[in-house]
Amino acid sequence: xxxxxxxxxxxxxxxxxxxxxxxxxxxxxxxxxxxxxxxxxxxxxxxxxxxxxxxxxxxxxxxxxxxxxxxxxxxxxxxxxxxxxxxxxxxxxxxxxxxxxxxxxxxxxxxxxxxxxxxxxxxxxxxxxxxxxxxxxxxxxxxxxxxxxxxxxxxxxxxxxxxxxxxxxxxxxxxxxxxxxxxxxxxxxxxxxxxxxxxxxxxxxxxxxxxxxxxxxxxxxxxxxxxxxxxxxxxxxxxxxxxxxxxxxxxxxxxxxxxxxxxxxxxxxxxxxxxxxxxxxxxxxxxxxxxxxxxxxxxxxxxxxxxxxxxxxxxxxxxxxxxxxxxxxxxxxxxxxxxxxxxxxxxxxx
Length: 350
Fold this sequence. Notes:
It is a single chain. The chain has 15 helices and four strands. Helix content is 55%, strand content 3%. By secondary structure, it is mainly alpha-helical. The two termini are 50 Å apart. The strands form two sheets. The protein has a two-stranded antiparallel ribbon with strand order 1-4.
């Protein structure tokens, strides 16, 4: 039986804490203290404006600092401890400065997301450097530039391993692609400016969107095989349900049960499939895949707005645009801004 006695004695200058359960103590400056420091940073560094312009700039600086602190408390309250770090103060002022100048709400939200991510890295590493640079670069971009970075990042650099069928894929597109689909532009100047800003470069190689999706989500775009075709390939385990399932695109046929080749290889390991069967099943997996035109048609049938994405991809430099670390960081933050949580940026930049 636990004692209910909670008598305590505290020495002068100390603090007594009581609780019925565990206590978590975060040391460091309070939110109020950080807000005061933030305003000092802004007032000491921002150029002097007159009359209404000064009042507007100060109000915007307070607004963006409040938004930042609110998001920081939710995602990384330990980051408050960085308020006295000179490098962090410089990053904070960058956010305040650009928002004070523009008052752009979308830019403000994006900068806040980048700055919160910046607080998660208190050591000078590549990710901290990239995020610092991203805070300087993002204000140079329009909403269309940001949409291009988000779409390029989403399709060229990420995959959702939890997608099992077309309904899930459609929901994934709705959540992460549809907010940006109408904003993508095709004019060359857009990509030249992104290249100038250090967000990416135009490669000599061109990769179609259908090819990208067909590789990342191959299992969604299979034509399937009948029992005779599988039998003629000499697969010793036959239509083993551990690696075969009903075809998503033709219920009368059977397909390899894997999202892509990486997932298929993992399934082989889990189920101890022999080398001979591995080679034959992998060959079957490739032979079942739709061609690019069929993949494009399937995606547009699932979500008609994807027609615009395919059009932009096929008729602009997007197909050959490769992101830098800064482009990845900004694309990642832009997706988070509209779609909510996303995987940790450290997956791509480390």
